[in-house]
Design brief:
The protein is an alpha/beta fold. The chain contains four helices and seven strands; from the N terminus they run βαββαβββαβα. The chain has helices spanning 14-17, 34-38, 97-102, 113-120, and strands at 5-9, 19-20, 27-31, 46-49, 65-68, 86-88, 107-108. Mean pLDDT is 78; it is low at 95-121.
């Protein structure tokens, strides 16, 4: 099984620290600025992001799935988004970083073969 490549993008780098991936299931990179993301997005198959810079989609040659960090996706529905990319969101899920950190919560990226088979293959 090939391991999918995930890019976590948010202006606050602490969000990436909350992402947990079972050992060996995925390659995870994090970026907090457009310049950091520019060097990583070309390898990403999955983008877990909030307000990803649209000018960087041109470099996202392998992107298959964009998971928004929240319910709103207006920032993601732009002409630059490559065709065929699956866009998903998290309606009803909103917690501030302080809430997550205080409860020691973690966002889990489920990268089992069965969950990614249709969206990354």
């Amino acid at each position: 099984m090939t391991r999918p490549t995930v890019l976590v993008y948010h202006g606050d780098p602490r969000y990436a620290e909350l992402v947990r991936v079972p050992k060996g299931r995925a390659v995870v990179s994090a970026a907090a600025t457009p310049s950091e993301a520019a060097g990583l997005v070309g390898e990403a198959e999955i983008l877990y992001a909030w307000k990803f810079p649209p000018q960087l989609y041109a470099k996202a040659e392998r992107l298959k799935w964009l998971q928004a960090m929240g319910a709103g996706v207006d920032w993601a529905i732009v002409p630059e988004l490559p065709p065929g990319v699956i866009l998903t969101r998290a309606p009803g899920v909103w917690l501030s970083f302080a809430t997550c950190a205080s409860k020691s919560s973690a966002i889990t990226v489920n990268t089992t073969a069965s969950s990614l088979k249709n969206s990354v293959s």
